[in-house]
Amino acid sequence: MYTPKPSSRFVLFTLILLLLLSFLTPAISSELDLDDVDGDDMEGLEELIALDEEEDLQQKPEGAHHEKQSEAEFVSKAQRIVLELNNDNTKRAIDGNEYVLVLGYTPWCARSAELMPKFAVAATALKELGSPLLMAKIDAERYPKVASTLEIKGFPTLLLFVNGTSQPYTGGFSAEELVIWARKKTGVPIIRISSDAEARHFLKKHSMFVVGLFEKFEGSDYDEFTKAAEMDSEIQFVETNNAEIAKHLFPDFKPTSVFLGLVKSEPEKYTEYEGSFSTDGILQFLDDNKFPLTTVLTELNAAGVYSNTNKLQVLIIAEPDDFKKLVEPLQDIARKFKSKIMFIFVDIREENLAKPFLSMVGLEESKDSVVVSFNYSSSLKYLLESDTTPTSIEDFCSGLVSGTVSPYYKSQPIPDNKNMSILTVVGKTFDELILNSPENILLEIHTPWCITCETTSKQMEKLAKHFKGLDNLIFARIDASLNEHPKLQVDDYPTLLFYLADEKTNPIPLPTKSSTKELAALINNSLKEHNREIRDEL
């Protein structure tokens, strides 16, 4: 059955998702209990505001009402359709409606400000479609108790309440995507189109959709199509039994009794489904083709991008002007690797988006273009270490697909360890100083954010001083935040690993909560077991 692969398998990949998805923290589905909300219930739930066109006409000069309303006016009116929840009306709104989509926001949240106009436009569209869904919003700063009871914890948060029980929002964040998700969750997974007029009207409102042609709306193929429409929460499905209408919607359509195709507003506008009609096959087809050849990463589409982990992801992190020079050749490259690689542009000026990726390859301060790839199925990353040109990017991608590109591991510059009692190890010197060294080595693994690492570091200095002169014992340390190695997999800091001279593949972990004297004894015991010189006391 179609099940997307997990998006992360180790700490650094998880860190990316935490950083990029922290703007959307859906609350856990639960039964709503608002019995203790402050204030009396309203005598009746406030009706959604109907747009008072007559009043608007009276306020405008003669003839002005014939002018096309501005986008600001439209959004302003749309926002009045969304119910503002408060201490008094929240319980009545949730309990009195089968479907309620709630937006939790705060006035100071920039992401909330970006989403709210789209939410309002979606509310207008749903109202025009006769949707039973009530669209509502709650200012969590002004009404913190209500927001807490609704389990709104991050901003913005979207929750759908179905008969009083909440479920997280899982769709996209454009007005169109909000409408599609809401309609699918409230019982309209497929729109049936029966005339050219309906097709024209539909095309004005939808830039991306799946079209299915069936002689009869029944049978096994149609059942699989319907199941896929119900399971997908991002793309609008439409159906018709008229070949001319199918061609109107999908101009590349070739006459056949059963047909399915994906339409989107990208260079690859029309994509025909060529597999057998199965729910899993259709969903996989959409997952492979729903994104543009090159996706521009934003905070609003990040969730969708990171849930698409079935492909390698190649990110071009650059200034917009530099990226423009690559767009045309990159489209051609993307076509070649369409089924295997997802190409993503990240504006290097957007620190919230770019910096997490740059930090994963140790290039946080880079001002130049960076091309990096992530394979979420193997938890490996790759860096293009040559100039960013169309040829180098294509060669890089070919190597990724063929498996000839080596994984990338971060490393600081090689330091000068001359006359140092504790050697500094970096990613590039881990093999030489640790794995290939003929000596016994005690390695301290630390990070800058580790609270207890300083204590362990002081113990290491005392141990190095105590064992000074013992030629076959070396003390070393490595900063795991800036250095990586495939044979160094540590999740807890600080960590002490004792690499015996004749057993480098299985280091002995030493307890970091031990006293310096206890650590010295453990070192001596380990050396004694391997017939090494010992010193019994500190």
Automatic annotation (TrEMBL):
InterPro entries: Thioredoxin-like_sf (IPR036249), Thioredoxin_domain (IPR013766). It catalyses: Catalyzes the rearrangement of -S-S- bonds in proteins. It is found in: Endoplasmic reticulum lumen. Pfam families: Thioredoxin (PF00085), Thioredoxin_6 (PF13848). Residues 1-29 form the signal peptide. Gene3D superfamilies: Glutaredoxin. GO terms for cellular component: endoplasmic reticulum lumen. PROSITE patterns: THIOREDOXIN_2. Its EC number is 5.3.4.1. The keyword Cell inner membrane does not apply. One of its GO terms (molecular function) is protein disulfide isomerase activity. Keywords: Disulfide bond, Endoplasmic reticulum, Isomerase, Redox-active center, Repeat, Signal. Residues 21-187, 400-528 form the Thioredoxin domain. Belongs to the protein disulfide isomerase family. This is protein disulfide-isomerase.
